[in-house]
Design brief:
It contains 4 helices and no strands. It is 79% helix and 0% strand.
Length: 169
């Protein structure tokens, strides 16, 4: 009896934490809502290139303007991804144990009905959270790939004058 109470308490706490993380992650993704991966990548490229051109313009005392992204890479892409993954894991675990208890426990029909309804609701939220995690994962990879590609190009540009390799083109 005591282990059943602890199990129910842990499941309830897991659902409460998961739902609070779900709402927090949704709030954090507001600045990137409706933007495609190409839009987010273009903002990152614009911000990085304007920062680098500002360094050169500062060196020759020319006026410059640095572009900023409308979102923060960590707070609006990275942290919500982690939160949605935690939500998916917690709700998936609770949903699995509830579904398993429907078939293994000898409860009344009313208890099993409540468990079925709760399991269906949790399964829906788990699937939605999983899809949101996948969406954010793709956005994170797109922005990271564009950033890495831009830095590789810039590294090649900066290393070219100092290279001893003399090629005839």
């Amino acid at each position: 009896m005591r282990t059943l109470e602890l199990k129910v308490l842990l499941q309830t706490l897991g659902v409460a934490v998961a739902i609070s993380f779900y709402f927090w992650a949704n709030y954090l993704t507001n600045p990137i809502e409706g933007k495609s991966a190409s839009d987010l990548s273009k903002e990152v490229v614009g911000s990085i290139s304007s920062s680098i051109s500002a360094i050169f313009k500062e060196a020759v005392n020319q006026p410059y303007e640095v572009q900023h992204t409308s979102y923060n890479l960590i707070w609006n892409l990275g942290l919500p991804l982690i939160l949605f993954l935690i939500v998916t894991t917690l709700l998936g675990t609770v949903c699995f144990h509830l579904a398993k208890s429907i078939f293994t426990d000898a409860d009344s029909t009313l208890d099993n009905g409540i468990k079925c309804i709760t399991t269906i609701g949790l399964a829906y939220v788990t699937i939605m959270s999983g899809l949101r995690s996948l969406d954010l994962l793709i956005l994170n990879f797109a922005v990271a790939a564009v950033s890495i590609f831009l830095f590789i190009i810039l590294l090649g540009i900066f290393r070219a004058p100092f290279s001893n390799d003399s090629r005839d083109f």
